[in-house]
Specification:
The strands form seven sheets. Strands 1, 5, 6, 7, 8, 9 and 10 form a seven-stranded mixed sheet that branches. A six-stranded antiparallel sheet has the order 2-13-12-26-27-14, with no helix packed on it. Strands 16-15-20-21 form a four-stranded antiparallel sheet, covered by helices on one side. It has four helices and 27 strands. The chain is mainly β. A hairpin with a 4-residue loop joins β26 and β27. The chain folds into two domains: 232 residues, Beta Barrel (Cathepsin D, subunit A, domain 1), CATH 2.40.70.10; 186 residues, Beta Barrel (Cathepsin D, subunit A, domain 1), CATH 2.40.70. Helix content is 7%, strand content 29%. The longest helix has 15 residues. It comes from Vitis vinifera (Grape).
Length: 434
């Protein structure tokens, strides 16, 4: 499942449309999330990272009290099933905190999958016309311009680095959580030509993300271990709204950047964490804190991303991690082997034995917050009897950020408090959190 090249998502973004939102309620919604084998670009990618547009955030935006719970099984992406339209049609989407614009697969016979969304069956579906403010060509915040199609509708395109793509029309549609709780019509991409079968649920800090458009105050997810003892894929959980377990979470404040800051390597819409260091087997590695902070170019930013499989570190941090791994388990290293073009700390042998040689690893943040990766979860089985430490070099992917991927978020509640501008963590057995 190794990719020949990393897949960078290039998204089209725009300014927020004026929508009418219901007043905040005290009700909450609970839904289940499902994980399925990855398809197309998701199956072959080690990470997903969008080029962010520079939207200004409105701190006075009201939030809506949703509490939607879903469960998912963990493969390499976190797949959620959400009810969209009126009446609702269940759509599978990749939960991605590194992306902004959400999109779904729309039905265009005869080549689209049978699970694609059928606009003709929804009374709340509408397409944005060319004269809409979101469909202005050459808008500065756009990675690529939108265009008018032959029907005078607003057309968008996603392009991936390996040549895969998703394109279609910008539309408005509701998420129908229950008969009494729905979102207003939100901006979505309705893909009519795509190399993927799942859509994207964009959850970053951008004004076009689902969480922003739906006025979500909090959301959280719990990633189960990749495999249970029986060999099946366990089910995890996803909440929109307050998490009933949040009293035990430890929180770290997000780092924020002015939207006017134009740094070539910075994503100002990502969830950026104040990371302090890394411990392996109880030893604090000699890595300067500056390696985890954005420099004047934006390089070194540390972000947490549900849409990235493994964790990636800038060279200064990665070299220290590898140096320590060589000391602890050097004889077991598979020399000359690189998985996915970026993971070169790979081993032949039993993952449990090698994990015990390495010990636990911890990512340290401000306020005493830590993400502890237990030795049993240090290595990923990449096939052929090869086990790789789930950490790669960012520069081999062509990025200059530290990215904490979902592989190192297993058995961990991760809550994004959008009002409080903080992220919370809580250890748990995610396979039992549903």
């Amino acid at each position: 499942m190794a990719p020949s090249t990393p897949l960078l998502l290039f998204f089209l973004f725009a300014s927020l449309v004026s929508l009418s939102y219901p007043k905040p309620s005290n009700h909450s919604l609970s839904f289940s999330l499902t994980s399925i084998p990855l398809s197309s670009h998701s199956k072959n990618s080690l990470f997903s990272s969008s080029l962010a547009s520079q939207f200004k955030q409105n701190p006075n935006t009201k939030t809506t009290s949703y509490n939607y719970r879903s469960s998912f099984k963990y493969s390499m992406a976190l797949i959620v099933s959400l009810p969209i339209g009126t009446p609702p049609q269940t759509q599978q989407m990749v939960l991605d905190t590194g992306s902004q614009l959400s999109w779904i697969q729309c039905k265009v016979p005869p080549k689209t999958p049978p699970t694609a969304f059928d606009p003709l069956l929804s009374s709340s579906f509408s397409v944005l016309p060319c004269n809409h403010s979101l469909c202005k060509p050459r808008v500065p915040d756009y990675t690529l311009p939108t265009s008018c199609d032959q029907n005078r509708l607003c057309h968008y395109s996603y392009f991936y680095a390996d040549g895969t793509y998703a394109e279609g029309n910008l539309v408005r549609e509701k998420f129908t959580f229950s008969s009494s709780q729905t979102t207003p019509p939100l901006i979505l991409g309705c893909a009519t030509d795509s190399s993927d079968t799942q859509g994207i649920l964009g959850m970053n800090l951008g004004r076009l993300s689902f969480s922003s458009l739906a006025k979500i105050s909090k959301f959280s997810y719990c990633v189960p271990p990749r495999r249970s003892q029986s060999g099946s894929s366990p089910t995890g959980s996803f909440y929109l709204g307050p998490n009933p377990s949040s009293a035990g979470f430890k929180y770290v404040n997000l780092m924020t950047y002015r939207q006017s800051q134009r740094m070539p390597n910075l994503d100002p819409l990502a969830y950026t964490l104040p990371m302090l260091g890394i411990r392996i087997n109880g030893k604090k590695l000699n890595i300067s804190t500056s390696a985890f902070r954005a420099d004047p170019s934006g390089a070194g930013q540390t972000l947490i991303d549900s849409g990235t499989w493994f964790t990636f570190l800038v060279d200064e941090a990665y070299s220290k991690v590898k140096e320590e791994i060589v000391k602890l388990a050097g004889p077991k290293l598979k020399k000359g082997y690189v998985y996915g073009g970026s993971l070169d700390m790979c081993f032949d042998g039993d993952a449990m034995v090698i994990g015990r040689m390495i010990g636990n690893m911890a990512f340290e943040f401000e306020n005493g917050v830590e993400i502890v990766v237990e030795r049993e979860k240090m290595l990923a089985d990449v096939g052929g009897g090869v086990q790789c430490l789930g950490i790669g070099r960012s520069d081999l992917l062509g990025v200059a950020s530290n990215i904490i991927g979902n592989f190192h978020q297993q058995d961990l509640w991760v809550e994004f408090d959008l009002v409080g501008r903080r992220v919370g963590f809580g250890r748990t057995d995610c396979s039992r959190s549903v």
